[in-house]
Design brief:
Blueprint lengths: L1 H43 L4 E17 L2 E2 L2 E2 L5 E16 L4 E5 L2 E6 L3 E18 L8 H20 L2 H20 L2 H6 L1 E6 L2
Parallel strand pairs: 6-8
Antiparallel strand pairs: 1-4, 2-3, 4-7, 5-6
């Protein structure tokens, strides 16, 4: 009789161990899958600066002034100029700042704030459209350089205030990243992708 009791206890212990081991293996496997998919997604995305929108422009610079003495305009010192110049502004972000979370088969891609990555103006396109100078107040090469730099700062300010451009940059990044991620079979079959942007 005692042997039967011992045998039953052993069978129960073995069964419980197998059940517990199966649950632990299942949890570990789920955790590994979660880590793997997060790692896989992160590997697809860029790790350096990423330009999601390249904005080419051609603009007009107008400038006029007159020399003054004690607040009074000095005759024969007024001047006016109209120039044109081309430039390129790149909007984007650093890929290193992207983070990934996986919740209930939803991959959340946390995106950094869009910013101006670079702004190039092309001096070779800086051309005079109209100019009027006076005998005692002419434009110099330094004046032209100062106009270009002042215009560059002003244009960056206007771009930073243009929410439409930043929205376009976000949409472009989402479309491109979604295309890359949905080409991963496991992602396409099992996960939904959501982008969250830092404001």
């Amino acid at each position: 009789m005692k042997y039967w009791v011992i045998f039953v206890i052993i069978i129960i212990c073995i069964g419980g161990g197998v059940f517990l081991g199966t649950r632990l293996d299942s949890n570990i496997l789920k955790q590994e899958n979660k880590i793997d998919i997060t790692y896989t997604v992160k590997e697809i995305l860029p790790i350096a600066e990423y330009a999601s929108l390249v904005y080419h422009y051609s603009t007009v610079i107008t400038e006029s002034d007159v020399r003054r003495l004690f607040g009074i305009s000095i005759p024969l010192t007024d001047r006016r100029a109209i120039y044109t110049i081309d430039g390129t502004i790149k909007l984007g972000f650093s890929g290193r700042d992207i983070t990934i979370t996986n919740q209930n088969n939803i991959i959340i891609v946390h995106m950094p704030k869009i910013k101006i990555l670079s702004h190039e103006i092309y001096p070779e396109t800086f051309s005079l459209y109209d100019e009027r100078t006076s005998l005692f107040n002419r434009y110099s090469l330094q004046d032209a350089n100062n106009l270009q730099m002042e215009h560059k700062r002003e244009f960056e300010r206007k771009v930073n205030e243009n929410e439409g451009l930043f929205f376009q940059a976000q949409q472009s990044a989402e479309q491109q990243f979604r295309f890359f991620l949905e080409n991963i079979p496991e992602v396409k079959e099992k996960y939904r992708i959501v982008f969250e942007w830092e404001m």
